[in-house]
Amino acid sequence: MGVPELNIEEQIQTISNSILDQLRILYQQFTESNVNHMQAYSKIDGIKSSVEDLRYKVGEYVLKVSEGLLYSNLYLDVIMQLEKVSQNIGAASYRFGVLSNKVKNQDQTLLTLAVSMVEKLIAATTNIMEAVRLLSVNAKKSSEKARNVIKIEEEIDDLYRNFELKLFEKQNSDMAFLMLSKDIADRLEDCADLLRDAANDLMYLSFLRE
User: Fold this and answer.
1) Looking at the whole model, is its pTM more than 0.85?
2) Which one of 92, 142, 181, 187 is most buried, counting C-beta atoms within 10 A?
3) Integer Cα distance of 27 and 37 in angstroms
4) Residue 109 and residue 94: Cα distance in Å, rounded?
5) CA end-to-end distance (rounded Å), the chain
6) Least confident of 26-30, 32-36, 54-58, 167-171
7) CB–CB of 44/20 below 8 Å?
8) How far apart, in Å, are the Cα atoms of 3 and each of 14, 27, 33, 65, 67?
9) For residues 119 and 30, what is the distance between their CA atoms, to the nearest angstrom?
10) CATH value at residue 166
């Protein structure tokens, strides 16, 4: 393993850390009653823009060094997946802000499920960061962290199905409430799927290092 790999992995950690920052702000939106949702969204959107810029720079770097870099496609996949996670968090934040303006009293059952999904996304992203960090230190431990993400994705899937079921029970509610609530849950579930895909790519990289 050479300098290019280390540089790329360091930048992937930076992107992952930015996603953690976004998730923490989203968590505040879901759990704190006095949040200014448009300000929170503005912060999340600003982080998303920086992630997109960094993804472009890292992607350009990967392509420049690709001749001397084995499995550059795996690195490119990971950064693309993480960029999409960041974008989905932004979309969920915006929609929750709109929903909060329309509905003053949130449905606590649905909100609790959404909070649990965000908590697990934080755990999954933390494991992604660790998996990347450990690639150059201990490949076996890196693959263990990646497997953790795959397990967490299954747990988020269960929460998502439960969310859908509870939402279906409220089919007589306002259409805007139903659509926005469903879209928020969809975005969170998409984040879990993308983190799982990134974890699979990291697991392949770790196997190649063992």
Assistant:
1) yes
2) 92
3) 11
4) 21
5) 12
6) 167-171
7) no
8) 17, 36, 47, 10, 14
9) 11
10) 1.20.58.220
